[in-house]
Description:
Blueprint: H1 2-8, H2 10-22, H3 33-36, H4 40-64, E1 71-72, H5 74-90, H6 103-109, E2 114-123, H7 128-136, H8 139-146, E3 152-160, E4 163-173
Amino acid sequence: MQRWKQVLGTRSASLALMVVVGSGLLPVVMVPAAIAQRPAATAAQADVAIAQEILRLVNVERQRVNAPPLVLNDKLTAAAQRHAQDMATSRRMSHTGSDGSTMRSRIDATQYNWSTIGENVAMGQPTAAAVMAAWMNSPGHRQNILNPAFTELGVGYATGANRPYWAQVFARPR
């Protein structure tokens, strides 16, 4: 909370924390300077903008192979964001969380009722376009992005030690 007060000012810090916690998203470790100087709602909007850009780029790739477009899902985004934040905090990229969590356990924790799931993670790419290029150049990640069985997407982004950490969670509900 103290960090939020420093970044956002005393009056908006409580609101910012409620917005971030209430949305199921954890705050990023480091807030870019341009965002840190704005009100809390703008920081949350920045996360939405990143997710929307990843979604757009995913759907451009899916359209090329006639796969149906994905839509963002709040529960999947919560699972992806928690994992991205955990990777940033622990400063390691892995499909296994620092607490031993797995893709399945993280998704199940959101109470998303799924029939099929997949996950992509990455570290170090500075932009949505850069991380998408890396994922598309990796056969396993590319397969998740283009898999026509998936219908929904969650996106997570966090920074730790000045490195971006990314997570995508793909699923189809039951």
